[in-house]
Amino acid sequence: MADGTDKPIEDVKVGDRVLATDPETGESGPQPVVGTLASAGAKTLVRISVAGGVLVATDNHPLWVAERGERVRADELRAGMLLRTPAGAPAARGLCAARKRCRPPRRAGASSPLSS
């Protein structure tokens, strides 16, 4: 969340403020959630190891890679790619790890004007 707290994605709702990155400038800041996504069926999840923990995302979820100046699908991340922390600062370099299939929550995502 934009205030630094964590919330399960299924609990994020329209109007909540999240940290988002402008894909053209790479600048991050708080933005309101303007919509949610519904999804059904099994999904492939990707575990991405970073300093301080593990990020789990669907395989096609776009993540901002700082040195490339663009979003990269979670399943296309490679060791050494520089990601950002929830606060927008550069994180330790991500390491793509094991993948597995599972059912996502009913509301599997949220978007903001500058969706990260």
What does this structure look like?
Residues 1-16 have a biased composition (Basic and acidic residues). Residues 1-33 are annotated as: Disordered. This is Hint domain-containing protein. InterPro entries: Hint_dom_N, Hint_dom_sf. Residues 1-87 form the Hint domain. With 116 residues, this protein is an all-beta fold. It has one domain (9-104): Endonuclease - Pi-scei, Chain A, domain 1 (Beta Complex), CATH 2.170.16. It is built from no helices and ten strands. It has strands spanning 17-21, 28-32, 35-38, 43-50, 53-58, 62-65, 70-73, 81-84, 90-102, 107-111. It has a four-stranded antiparallel β-sheet, with no helix packed on it. Strands 1-2 form a two-stranded antiparallel ribbon. It has a two-stranded antiparallel ribbon with strand order 3-10. It is globular and about 35 Å long. The N and C termini lie close together (12 Å). The mean pLDDT is 75.
